Amino acid sequence: MQKCRVMSPEIAEAPSLEAMIRAGAKALSGSQSPRLDSRVLAKHVLSVDDAALIVRAADPVTDETKRAYDGVVMRRACGEPIAYITGVKEFWGMTFRVTRDVLIPRSDSECLVEAVVSRRPRGSVSRILDLGTGSGCLLCALLSEYPDAAGVGVDISGAAVAVARDNAARLGLAHQSAFAVSDWFENVDGAFDVVIANAPYIPDGDRAALVIDVSEFEPDSALFAGGDGLAAYRDIFRSACDYLTPDGLLVIEFGTPRQGEALREMIGTIWPAGEIGVIRDLAARDRGIALQLEPVGKKD
Ligand SMILES: C[S@@+](CC[C@H](N)C(=O)[O-])C[C@H]1O[C@@H](n2cnc3c(N)ncnc32)[C@H](O)[C@@H]1O
Question: Is the CATH number 3.40.50.150 carried by domain 88-292?
Fold first, then answer.
């Protein structure tokens, strides 16, 4: 990603919308997807959709729009993720508001939602707990699939809890959800059929290996978890038994195959009778674990 720069003369002098977008893409050549980023930012500044960009391609652009566009292109060129610039991110077909207080929802995390939906038919889930809710994306996605269920989302960050609560309200899920500031289970009561967690799992020493978009912009509390990245899950596993129903489902995300192995080992020790399922992401990489406490249908 290139360093910050002064206003691009090519954007300032662009004779049309299409030329402005081309100039934006050129200024974003350090990005992995310059053309796409450039178009998304143009749509954001103009508050229009894809179709309008095509229809208006040859139209001239006002100086005010060019200034606004140059400003967001500059932010992106400095590494700021698109979602923080536009303030929104799609997840599970829903639009979430995001701020720099929350991790940007990743499409790979949708496999956690799928893992629950594929194991629990509608009507079989009453209470869901989302640990480290961030934007609230996992909880809201699940509540949209289980309209009869109630969900609790907790996060150690008060600012994140405010974003999650706002997202639930915007998505019409306020009546199904409650959010609280909590150090994992600290302020949680009762037992849950489903406990889901995308806890921080990046080893502290891996900061330098992260792209700037992540390391410089996303909250540290959402990313890092001790020397091996598993500190958060060790904390969670210590208490999880007390908050799962006897046939509950625990679904978690991790980052690397080695972490997956270590987590499966820990889980096998704590819940020797549990059934461990591997969750794969869109690229067919191991991404999570689904622990079924007492396998449904195998009770004595
Ligand atoms: C990787 S982010 C996941 C956010 C969201 N669930 C998602 O999938 O996009 C981890 C979240 O855990 C929260 N967190 C970190 N430590 C925590 C703790 N001790 N108790 C509760 N939440 C914590 C962070 O603030 C962050 O929002």
Answer: yes
Lowest mean pLDDT among 1-10, 89-98, 113-122, 166-175: 1-10
Q: For a pocket test of ligand 1, which of 98, 100, 156, 238 has the largest count of ligand atoms closer than 8 A to its C-beta?
A: 156
* In the predicted structure, residue 220 carries a pLDDT above the cut 80: yes
Grouping H, G, I as helix, E, B as strand and the rest as coil, residue 186 is coil
Tens digits of residue pLDDT in 246-269: 999 999 999 999 999 999 999 999
d(CA 92, CA 142): 9
- Residue 300 pLDDT more than 80? no
Q: Where are the domains of the chain?
A: 9-79, 88-292
Classify domain 9-79 by CATH number.
Answer: 1.10.8.10
What are the helix (H) ranges across 30-90? 34-46, 50-55, 63-77, 82-86
What is the residue with the minimal CA distance to atom 6 of ligand 1?
133
User: Torsion angle of alpha carbons 33, 36, 40, 46, nearest 10°?
Assistant: 130
SS3 of residue 71 by DSSP: helix
Q: Could you give the 3-state DSSP secondary structure of residue 36?
A: helix
